[in-house]
Amino acid sequence: MKQFKTPRRDPYHAQWKILRSTDTAITIEDTGHTTGRSVTNDAEYVVEQLAPILFGRRLLYFDSMGELDEILIQNNQFAGFHHPREAPHVENSAREETAPRDKNSAAT
């Protein structure tokens, strides 16, 4: 799979890294919220940049507070937000797939 890098044209825009890419979703993490806009506050830009690789998949993201949310997309454009906390199985699955594993972490 080709590595996708966040464009660096404007450092004020949101910055992120892709944590996981599956057949059904891409999960990203907000990494630039301390120096520019957060993924939440720049969702239109994030969708614009990621739309070419989404191919109808869901876009999940860990926001600047570490919470898992979903950016809704319709016709390759930002269409709102969904909070998987309303569907715990989605959040748990994404966290398990993206969480780093070490000997001190406990399985949930």
Could you give the topology of this structure?
Blueprint (H helix, E strand, L loop, with lengths): L15 E6 L3 E6 L12 H12 L3 E5 L5 E7 L2 E6 L5 H11 L10
Number of beta-strand segments: 5
Which residues form runs of ≥5 with pLDDT under 50? Answer: 100-108
Approximate strand percentage: 25-35%
Using the CA coordinates, give the radius of gyration: 14 Å
Secondary structure: helix percent = 10-25%
Count up the helices.
2
Described by strand count, sense and barrel closure, the largest sheet is: 5 strands, mixed
Kindly report the oligomeric state of this protein.
single chain
Spatial order of the strands forming the largest sheet: 1-2-3-4-5
Structural class: alpha+beta
Distance between the termini: 30 Å
Average pLDDT works out at: 80
The succession of helices and strands, N to C, reads EEHEEEH
Form type: globular
What labels describe this entry?
alpha+beta, five-stranded mixed beta sheet, disordered C terminus
What does this entry look like structurally?
This protein is an alpha+beta fold and 108 residues long. It has a domain at 23-60 and 75-98. 21% of the residues lie in helices and 28% in strands. It contains two helices and five strands; from the N terminus they run ββαβββα. It has helices spanning 43-54, 88-98, and strands spanning 16-21, 25-30, 58-62, 68-74, 77-82. A five-stranded mixed sheet has the order 1-2-3-4-5. Strand 1 and strand 2 (25-30) form a beta hairpin. The longest helix has 12 residues, at 43-54. The relative contact order is 0.16.
